[in-house]
């Protein structure tokens, strides 16, 4: 079974790593877009076209399931991808873990990119899933970009800035960008003791496996990892090695292109 994950950068790593841990025999296509990253500030139609073109390349390589472990791609292109590939190919999107955080904590901060923090999309999620809790958005300027570059010192500084702008009374922080779980240990270390972190990577991986099982077809593969960089066969960026998830995936068997 070949599962394709589509994202502009390293935000796909947490979900990909969970898939590798939970079902190591799956063959993975990791389709990154360094030429077009970041997607967040791009026009909506540009993102849709980019994601659809990437989805087509993944289908051409034999993908049977498509995952969008990226908030921008999920918000902008998820429905378009589902229509494009048809009902035979499951497509799994990503939603920030606001619902479980608000159910567990009276006060929640949602850490996200500046674009997502200011978006109608996040405001609607907070309104829908806030569950009466106090939920505030915190823009984490430069954090995703530093993670993509593998610059842990810059990422640590961006985390410190976000901590300063996070209310003191929060009980939970939602990692609302799929890049952020890669720095979860540092985020937890800088936040006050007892603050819980919530991210969606494991839930997205689990939902992907449910969709795979529902296909009722053999899913065992060889545990290969095939990487595309803006459509070109390649390897995970060297910056991925700065994170355990990247190390895990880089250690997998590479699929010849």
UniProtKB/TrEMBL annotation:
Gene Ontology biological process: peptidoglycan biosynthetic process
Keyword field: Isomerase
InterPro entries given in the database record: Asp/Glu/hydantoin_racemase, Asp/Glu_race, Asp/Glu_racemase_AS_1, Asp/Glu_racemase_AS_2
GO terms, molecular function: glutamate racemase activity
Domain of life: Bacteria
Residues annotated as signal peptide: none
Keyword Isomerase included in the entry's annotation: yes
EC class: isomerase
EC number: 5.1.1.3
Protein name: Glutamate racemase
Species annotation: Rhodococcus wratislaviensis (Tsukamurella wratislaviensis)
């Amino acid at each position: 079974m070949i599962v394709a994950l589509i994202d502009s950068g390293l935000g796909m790593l947490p979900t990909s790593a969970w898939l590798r841990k939970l079902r190591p025999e799956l063959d993975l296509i990791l389709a990154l877009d360094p030429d077009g990253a970041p997607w967040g500030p791009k026009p909506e139609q540009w993102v849709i076209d980019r994601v659809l073109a990437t989805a087509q390349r993944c289908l051409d390589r034999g993908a049977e399931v498509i995952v969008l472990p990226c908030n921008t791609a999920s918000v902008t292109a998820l429905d378009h991808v589902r229509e494009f590939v048809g009902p035979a190919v499951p497509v799994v999107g990503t939603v920030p873990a606001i619902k479980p955080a608000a159910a567990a904590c009276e006060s929640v901060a949602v850490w996200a990119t500046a674009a997502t923090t200011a978006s109608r999309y996040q405001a609607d999620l907070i309104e829908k899933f806030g569950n009466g809790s106090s939920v505030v958005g915190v823009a984490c300027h430069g954090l995703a970009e530093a993670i993509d570059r593998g610059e842990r010192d810059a990422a640590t500084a961006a985390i410190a800035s976000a901590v300063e702008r996070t209310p003191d009374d929060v009980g939970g922080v939602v990692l609302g960008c799929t890049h952020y779980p890669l720095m979860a240990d540092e985020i937890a270390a800088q936040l006050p003791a007892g603050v819980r972190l919530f991210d969606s990577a494991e839930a997205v991986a689990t939902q992907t496996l449910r969709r795979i099982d529902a296909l009722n077809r053999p899913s065992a593969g060889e545990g290969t990892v095939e990487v595309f960089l803006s459509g070109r066969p390649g390897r995970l960026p060297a910056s991925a090695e700065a994170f355990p998830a990247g190390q895990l995936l880089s250690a997998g068997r590479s699929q010849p292109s």
